[in-house]
Amino acid sequence: MSDERRKPFPFDVFESKWQDHWDQNHTYRTPNPGDADFDASKPKYFVLDMFPYPSGAGLHVGHPEGYTATDILARYKRMKGFNVLHPMGWDAFGLPAEQYAIKTGQHPRVTTETNINNFRRQLKSLGFSYDWEREVNTTDPGYVRWTQWIFLRLYHSYYNPETQKSAPISELEAKGYTREQIDAERLAFVSEAPVNWSPDLGTVLANEEVEEWKAKGHTVERRPLRQWMLRITKYAQRLIDELEDVDWPDSIKASQRNWIGRSEGASVSFKIAGVTQEIEVFTTRPDTLFGATYMVLAPEHPYVEEITTEANKEAVEAYQQGCLSKSDLERGDLNKNKSGVPTGAFAINPANGKEIPIWIADYVMMGYGTGAIMAVPAHDERDFEFAQKFELPIIQVVASPDSVGGHSAGCDCELEKAAPGHGVAVESGFLNGLPTHAAKAEMIQWLEKEGVGSQQINYKLRDWLFSRQRYWGEPFPVLWEEGKHFAVSEDELPVLQPDLEDFKPTGSPEGPLAKATDWIQYSETAKRETNTMPQWAGSCWYYLRYCDPKNEEHFIAPEIEKYWSGEKGMVDLYVGGTEHAVLHLLYARFWHKVLYDQGLLSTPEPFDKLVNQGLILGEDGQKMSKSIGNVVNPDDVVNLYGADSLRLYEMFMGPLEQVKPWQMKGVEGVSRFLAKVWRVVMVQNQEGEWASSGKVSAEAELSNAMRKTLHETIKKVGEDIEAMKFNTAISQMMICVDSFTKAEKVPLDTFLDFLRILNPFAPHLTEELNLLVSPEAGLLCQQDWPEYQPEFLIETEVEVVLQVNGKLRGRITVSKEASKEEVEALALADENVIAFTDGKTIRKVIVVPGRLVNIVAN
RNA sequence: GCCGCUGUGGCGGAAUUGGUAGACGCGGCGGAUUUAAAAUCCGCUGUUCGCAAGAACGUGCCGGUUCGAUUCCGGCCAGCGGCACCA
Q: Whole-number Å distance, CA A514 to C1' B16?
């Protein structure tokens, strides 16, 4: 006791005591429909945290930020009579978990379990009210089984463009589709396209993941490989449209729209001189077709070889070779320095019949549109730059609105830069004189009439690369026989990875599972798929499993799914970081919609309301990092100040969504506040022992002032929790406690009301104090949220501010009931007002009842 | 470049439908208590001028609307985040 810093209140004694109590009594168990204690009359509330992935480093202070916010909501809603689903689990597959295992030389299952135990201990030490009986772990065989089951739903489904929904593939079988035709329609399919292969990670990556891993110093290159893909592109439009229906931050919605990247335009077919094929291009500016003076193909475009003339062959092949060796980064860096070579072939501009040269250049990407463009240098910055460099013709076909009068058709003044803006069509035959918008429509109509093009919508979104060459992931429930894939039957799930001694990546596209020769050989003729699923597979649907985590018949029982679903989304509130803006949050929406289409879910969206907590920076205002040494460990904070202080501080720092720096002094501040609450009930004697202060008493009388403060506090804290403005809720509670500290006596009921509203924030301290002042009452967290009485908030007298010409000049106290005229008369009689209006004429008097009087005088 | 967000004391941040700018906390200063310190309690604390009463200025900058603008409108500037040769 001697060395140890004397604790301002004995949180070290009671916090773990209450945690054990809640654990042993299953205090936060949430009944499901069908359970004996289920109460169908209670409304449901599903409040979800982004489940962590249990790294070896343990929790950082960013985790408890969002987790405390949701815990406050969960506890508040329970006290308001809701049946609250507030679960926690582990996103335990994935590259980092496996890398950690490789680094420590242990099997991933062992390290993962160790890490999970540490995370669970840490979370429990913060007093979160999770229903731990619903804990979910993505690596559990019982969970993997259903992840694979959902994969099979995707495998056995296609997207029906007529209904705009996914449907069983058997519909196509019934229509007599061939095996190849069916395989080409599956939502989970095999593709040979170029993918992002990381040689040092030994796996491929999704487009969405590439940047993250590159930032960590890994190399990623394009390489054609046979991979499993999910046809998320079919859902592009719905993924955009249905964002309208959810209550998400604008920035996340914008990121998703941006990532999906819808653009409207037209496809145009160009004939090639002397060759039978046509080349199709996509353009958002069909109105500029008359200005297309050359064409560019991506170096990888399949027609390049065929159309290249003998004379250009060598240069073209050299250029293609050069592009292959360039990394994406180099290609991006060369941004400002365009390169390319002519193929020697010519295309025919369908608008005017002119022959235009066909070039190849790496500023055209194979992955977007058709991998070919019509270049309109006058009205596109990139084409302009390219045309200047290679001295290709530049023809202006859109006059800017402000120069239409000056020079119309036939102007040969040279453009100094591209004019990508809208204007009026010139030099464009039948489009002349039309403003851009109308010219686009007119051209599309013409293209369709002539049969050389059509209206088209393009998306940047690519299909989701879904396979990884890893050990620590869900194996695909797929078999290969004579070069064809077949689904494993549902009753064979889960397909678990074999135990391997050596689970390190092979560096080959087959992955570590290829080493398990016995496991691979499913039967004499059939072999197993050796790829595994990405980490996202498990996190795509974990929120669903929480509803019914132990069900062995269904991934979620229909009646339970219905109960926990809302109107638009299933989860009422989802809190987490912004890093998943286009990853997890897009993937989960996609899976949810597929399952919704098939009648397995009741809502089109998974998450109704989404809130992003802001990053917590180090004390120095920089991002926390081990190398800078500014990382704050929550365990240390709990040891020094207690879990309640950590919870309260993280909520008091500022608005949840905001980025904010950590301040240890601030933790001390809220710790002082909690100590003050403690000392309302307890006093410390000379020996440092705590004893009842006798201040809180059932006989004490409630003063009007204290009653008003209490009711103001009940009102404000309730409203602030609903609005997730926890920082201001805490300020108000500080004001309330100040009034207790200053008072002689505090009535017991008043104090208990206060404890109830503080309970969601500081559950340990409040339960302990409740036990001390009201030992018979039972758990505070199971009591009702107090109601405030509006009549106690009403003031009989109000202070009215006096302004002269908008400047504060005085204040008077008037009765609440005083009429405008009375207030005005009092204001004009005020000596300060008289002093400042002296010698001036009063032009106008504005009276805002209960607030101010403004006198306009000059 | 495009999209989104944010600019308020020494610091984190408050401020309802436009109506007292700076709640609450941190830090600082002064006092009480103490042999002394810690802890605790009380008071002060936007800037400038003034002995004071008080006055002027003040929410990134410039302008507008208004009796009145941190709040609404227009134009800039700075910072943060995302996307980026996407045709």
A: 65
| Distance of A836 CA from B57 C1′ (whole Å) | 19
Q: What pLDDT does A510 receive?
A: 77
Q: Are A492 and A522 in contact (CB under 8 A)?
A: no
What is the per-residue pLDDT for A72? Answer: 97
**CA A449 to C1' B77, whole Å:** 51
**A537, A147 Cβ separation under 8 angstroms:** yes
- Residue A523 has what pLDDT? 92
Q: Which of A44, A204, A107 is nearest to A573 (CA)?
A: A44
Residue nearest to nucleotide B3 (CA to C1'): A254
Of all nucleotides in the shown strands, which has a C1' nearest the CA of A285? B87
Nucleotide with the nearest C1' to A732 CA: B24
Phi-psi label, residue A826: left if phi above 0, alpha if psi -120 to 50, beta otherwise:
alpha
Contact A222, A525 (CB under 8 A): no
Q: pLDDT band for position A327 (50/70/90)?
A: low
Instruction: Please tell me the predicted confidence (pLDDT) of residue A231.
Output: 95
Nucleotide B51 C1' to residue A837 CA (A):
28
Compute the distance between CA of residue A755 and CA of residue A677 in angstroms, rounded to an integer.
9
Dump pLDDT digits (tens) for A17-68. 999 999 999 999 999 999 999 999 999 999 999 999 998 889 999 999 999 9
Nucleotide nearest A339, CA–C1', reads B85
Average pLDDT, chain A: 89
Q: Quick: pLDDT tens for A537-595.
A: 999 999 999 999 999 999 999 999 999 999 889 999 999 988 888 889 999 999 999 99
Residues in Cβ contact with A186 at an 8 Å cutoff, skipping those fewer than 6 apart: A154, A155, A156, A157, A158, A169, A231
Nucleotide at minimal C1' distance from the A282 CA:
B87
Q: Are A494 and A479 in contact (CB under 8 A)?
A: no
Residue nearest to nucleotide B69 (CA to C1'): A806
pLDDT, greater one: A209 or A623: A623
The count of C-alpha atoms lying within 13 angstroms of the C-alpha of A344, restricted to the half-sphere facing its C-beta, is 14
Q: Which two tokens stand for residue A699?
A: 């006989």
- Whether the CB-CB separation of A119 and A52 falls below 8 Å is answered with yes
Supply the ipTM of this predicted assembly: 0.94
Contact criterion met (CB below 8 Å) for A223 and A202: no
pLDDT in tens, A832-850: 888 888 778 888 888 888 8
Nucleotide in closest CA–C1' contact with A266? B87
pTM: 0.92
d(CA A469, CA A95): 10
Most confident listed range (A645-659, A803-817, A843-857): A645-659
- Report the distance from CA of residue A538 to the C1' of nucleotide B81 in Å, as an integer: 27
Nucleotides of B under 7 A from a protein CB: 3-5, 11-15, 19-21, 23-27, 39-42, 55-57, 67-69, 80-87
Question: Rounded to an integer, what distance in angstroms lies between the CA atom of residue A791 and that of residue A708?
Answer: 9
Of A715, A697, A684, A693, the residue nearest A794 (C-alpha)? A715
Which of A810, A792, A790 lies closest to A800, judged by CA?
Answer: A810
- Percent pLDDT > 70 in chain A is 96
Task: Give the pLDDT confidence score for residue A685 in this predicted structure.
Answer: 78
State, as a whole number of angstroms, the distance between the CA of A858 and the C1' of B49: 26
In Å, what is the separation between the CA of A772 and the C1' of B32?
A: 31
CA distance A154 to A150: 6
CA–C1' nearest nucleotide, residue A660: B12
Residue nearest to nucleotide B68 (CA to C1'): A806
What digits encode the pLDDT tens for the residues A466-497? 988 888 999 999 999 999 999 999 999 899 99
Distance A680 CA to B42 C1' (A): 18
> Å from A669 (CA) to B53 (C1')?
37
